[in-house]
Amino acid sequence: MSRILYILAAGIIYLVIEVHSLVEFTNIKCQSVDKNFSDFEYCHLKSVNRTYKYISLKVNLFKIPVSKVKVNIELLKRFNGYKPFLYNVTVDGCQFLKKPKSSPVAFYFYNFFKNVSNINHSCPYNHDLMVDKLSTQHVNYQFTKVLPFPEGDYMYKMNWMAYGINRAVVEVYFSFS
Fold first, then answer.
1. How high is the pLDDT of residue 86?
2. Neighbours of 1 (CB within 10 A)
3. What is the pLDDT along the chain (177 residues), one digit of tens a residue?
4. Residue 14 lies in a domain
5. 2 located within any domain
6. Among residues 109, 130, 127, which one has the least CA distance to residue 118?
7. Domain contains 168
8. Which H helix or E strand runs over 42?
9. In whole angstroms, how far apart are CA 33 and each of 40, 82, 132, 159?
């Protein structure tokens, strides 16, 4: 009987002191570097209530089909400004989408938005690209269960290049506490 009480007490203490990590979006910035090639129709962070926020963006492509894409993915952490943190990788987007597991780092970050995006097939792209209602729920899972990160303020930055020229920059700011 005392052993059961001990296990029960340990379980209650664990539940009381367990820290629940949480991702919260703080901002998003989208910049079209070459407005003759593409431009953002919208790019916003929507706050539905105090606990539910999501990101949506749509980029209009003006010169389709697009068959050569590279993406530079960078994770930055805030230490007196945003400084590089762990990852800065560039992948051939067309080859990556044929074999997503060829780059584990890119695959990790691609998993953030692949289920809420139409960027889920290999080249060519004959349509506008969008991410629709990316909530913190899946991002939180990636940051706590798949690959845990320390608390802090982060920026997830993507440079999208087509035909060797930087065409767009997307920066997603979030805090992890």
1. 83
2. 5
3. 555 544 544 444 443 334 455 888 899 999 999 999 999 999 999 988 877 889 999 999 999 999 999 999 999 999 999 898 888 999 999 999 899 888 888 888 888 888 899 988 888 999 999 999 998 887 787 777 777 778 889 999 999 999 999 999 999 999 888
4. no
5. no
6. 130
7. yes
8. strand 38-47
9. 10, 21, 22, 10
Domain count, the chain: 1
Q: In this predicted structure, what is the pLDDT of residue 147?
A: 74
Tokens encoding 85: 């943190």
Structural domain of residue 145, as residue ranges?
A: 22-176
pLDDT of residue 101: 87
Ordered DSSP codes for 62-122: SS--B--EEEEEEEEEESSSEEEEEEEEEEEHHHHHHSGGGSHHHHHHHHHHGGGBS--SP
Beta bridge partners of 162: 69, 165
Place of tokens 């992948």: 91
State the burial class of residue 114 (Cβ atoms within 10 Å of its Cβ: 0-12, 13-18, 19+): middle
Q: With beta carbons less than 8 A apart as the criterion, state whether 176 and 143 touch.
A: yes
Q: What tokens appear for 149 in the block?
A: 């990160």
| Both structure tokens of 161 | 């290049």
Give the predicted TM-score (pTM) of the model: 0.83
In a domain, 3, yes or no: no
Q: Are 163 and 141 in contact (CB under 8 A)?
A: no
